[in-house]
């Protein structure tokens, strides 16, 4: 009989958008490879048989604690962690020139020193924030991105690593030499990144390469078309920025004569393998276009406040079935903690809904969301975006506790298991006999890293 790691206690997950499930007094059995073998009620014949296994390792969750799937961050600029929380007063294109390009070039000039330090600390910080998988923009230099992949693999963290492709730049010293060299480097990076973990069993391969045209202003049509072909030939994911900010949108329109969604589409980069960040300037037909293509959106509500004059039409995208997850957008967003993105997503959606009601003078008192056509999302929907929504966008089976899924989980303690007192901002209440919806909402609003005591990725404890 194979050995199992048995987790006994309360489990919380979102099985689908808007539906939160709390599994009290359950067992999640995890096999030797880190996959969920079974989920069952502890006080059942099946549960008893698991608990009777002499070789089983049992982890019993303390009272007032629960396991939650790890978060997914769908949009993070890894080298920009170097200057987190800097220069957010500037418009996007000016900010890129003043800070982003310089920082990325700085890491490319010192990959084994500065870059390795920044990326190692970033991986550690993400794990402490409960993130189990991140989709990352890197720099233009292959070696620096291989160090990023290595840092995430060594930390036991899932990393989707994007070597930037950009054959145009407003910074002459930070650009690839030609379209041909950019395409050659992208293909080379894909093979070298895959080679980093080729010696490991499939379930231990935590990093993979992602084709990453920075955005339309830094890529010629020839480069974009070549990257689209490369993605199709090698079946590799694609990430970029789409319709993010007014200055960027106007730049593309004046230079190419069409919107950037058209440029991506004609380059075969708007596919089911693609995740596009922001999308704040997309109208309804454009959202339909994403739905038809199977392209997912990395919703970054915090950075949108700083760099976009429009919010992302989240409710409309969800209602037509566009895949959406959340992104921190470091360093356009000033924190790697996806909890901030969850809260900001709800805040932004409520502001949108209130503005619409004021504009139309539509009565809201006593009316249901279906009657008012509410644009708001609630905290349960935001939790879905942070976990299962992000996992689906990345093609992962994580994000919920079901048989066959990788065991990617974080332990949340509402109270200190030793003293019984509330932890962090939850210190205003004591004993928690049962994890209720009310307590979960309190944690969602007020929780911080002090409430997180452990993180597992693919069954391995990394925090």
Automatic annotation (TrEMBL):
It comes from the Eukaryota. Keywords: Hydrolase, Metal-binding, Zinc. Residues 353-372 are annotated as: Disordered. One of its GO terms (molecular function) is guanine deaminase activity. Its cofactor is Zn(2+). PANTHER family: GUANINE DEAMINASE (PTHR11271:SF6). This is Amidohydrolase-related domain-containing protein.
